[in-house]
Design a protein that fits this description.
Layout lengths: L3 E7 L16 E2 L2 E2 H10 L6 E6 L4 H7 L9 E2 L4 H14 L5 E6 L7 H10 L5 E7 L4 E4 L10 E5 L5 E10 H10 L8 H7 L4 E5 L10 H14 L2 E14 L3 E4 L2 E4 L3 E2 L7 H13 L5 H4 L13 H13 L3 E10 L9 H12 L6 E6 L5 H4 L3 E12 L5
Parallel strand pairs: 1-4, 1-6, 4-5, 7-11, 16-17
Antiparallel strand pairs: 2-3, 6-10, 7-10, 8-9, 12-15, 12-18, 13-14, 16-18
Helix pairs in contact: 3-5, 5-6, 8-10
């Protein structure tokens, strides 16, 4: 089987999106747009590796967006998309050129495995192939001199034989590298145009029609609706945890360090809020409990930051193609007071799970001085989590 590398181009500034953060780093159903684009290729059986081309000024955004994906170092892009692609190709050539390369826009997060497979398969007997969809809309040409407020039609354009080009665009690596080197200094709109200029035959391959490019805010909203429509298996899990007080000068609650005249007794940092929430997520996906994944008998977890446990549960949901839709934590104690720290707790949980803060709730209550929490012997927490998973196939 020929070796194949996916080159994800994500060096744009996304000026048309309308926010300071480039579109490829925006959050889409709990993940960054770029992470979803990358994962489509990482999980494909015929793609050996993935490299990403970025704007070096966005390195911090990139690192956060793809955290946990174990990618190689990104390639620095150029002033234009064409220059960025060439930089990526040159980097691959210097590291041992693959047989095939798939070039994909980092802002196309809904590409599916079948489309990727069809592009790769077409390269068996063609030097180039692009994902595309036949144009179905009637095309109108505006009259010369029209302005936005008074645009008139000059005529109808024949759409026969017209296709809408998408990505991935796949090529035999030596051919597209030579074509890009020869086109240096030009500003062609896509890699198929670079290949066509070099005389390479480029095959049109049917794309998933939902393989949209996020350009404007409404594209992002549409992409989220499409993802959520696929995630119809809604699960709810609950969790409960208790830790007694011991000597100390602070406690950890929902990822926030709170000064206190006691500490928590526990093997890790004993964060009851994060422990209960971790169990709630594990319960929603039917994958045991926190003790199963992180045995308290294992010295590795002594004093561990409980954020590690919650991230693990988050990643298990992602591995199943799902998202965490909502998290609700209730802290039960007389002291310390939770109210002053609630915004920080919500922000911390949202950051760990990489979801919007409005999908997180933290509350507090007492037991009216009844029971062990009423006697201020410790703190309890209960949590509920809602998870959306794809419907089982078959």
């Amino acid at each position: 089987m020929p070796s194949c590398v996916a080159l994800i181009v994500a060096a744009g500034r996304g000026a048309r999106f309308g926010t300071d953060m480039p579109k490829q780093y925006q959050t889409l159903a709990g993940r960054s747009v770029l992470a979803r684009s990358v994962e489509a290729f990482r999980h494909h059986p015929r793609v050996g590796s993935v490299r990403v081309v970025i704007n070096p000024e966005h390195r911090d955004l990139y690192d956060r967006a793809v955290a946990g994906l174990n990618l190689g170092p990104p390639v620095s892009g150029g002033d234009t998309r064409q220059q960025s692609v060439r930089n990526g190709l040159e980097a691959l050539a210097s590291e041992g050129a693959p047989d095939l390369v798939l070039i994909h826009d980092g802002a196309r997060p809904l590409v599916d495995a079948d489309t990727i497979g069809r592009v790769i398969e077409a390269l068996t007997d063609a030097p180039g192939a692009i994902a595309a969809t036949p144009l179905a809309d009637t095309l109108k040409r505006e009259a010369a001199g029209s302005v936005a407020a008074n645009t008139v039609v000059a005529g109808t354009v024949d759409r026969t034989g017209l296709w809408r080009a998408r990505t991935p665009q796949g090529f035999r690596f030596p051919d597209i590298l030579a074509a890009h080197r020869d086109a240096a200094g030009l500003d062609l709109t896509d890699d198929a145009a670079v290949a066509e200029r070099a005389g390479l035959a480029v095959r049109l391959v049917q794309s998933n029609p939902d393989n949209l490019k996020v350009t404007h805010a409404y594209d992002l909203a549409r992409a989220e609706r499409l993802i959520m429509a696929e995630l119809g298996d809604i699960r709810t899990g609950t969790g409960f945890d208790v830790h007694a007080f011991t000597e100390g000068d602070h406690v950890m609650l929902c990822g926030v360090r709170i000064p206190h005249d006691r500490g928590f007794l526990g093997h890790s940092d004993a964060d009851v809020g994060l422990h209960a929430l971790t169990d709630a997520i594990l319960g929603a996906i039917g994958d045991g409990d926190i003790g199963h994944h992180f045995p308290p008998s294992d010295p590795k977890w002594r004093g561990a930051d409980s954020a590690v446990f919650l991230r693990h549960a988050r990643d298990l949901v992602r591995a199943r193609g799902g998202v965490i839709a909502h998290a609700d934590v209730t802290i039960i104690c007389e002291r310390p007071k939770v109210g002053p720290h609630r915004p920080a707790m919500v922000a911390r949980i949202a950051d760990i799970m990489e979801i919007a803060p409005d999908r997180v709730s933290v509350k507090a209550t007492t037991t009216e001085q009844l029971g062990f929490t009423g006697r201020r012997e410790g703190v309890a927490a209960q949590a509920a989590a809602t998870v959306r998973l794809p419907f089982p196939k078959g």
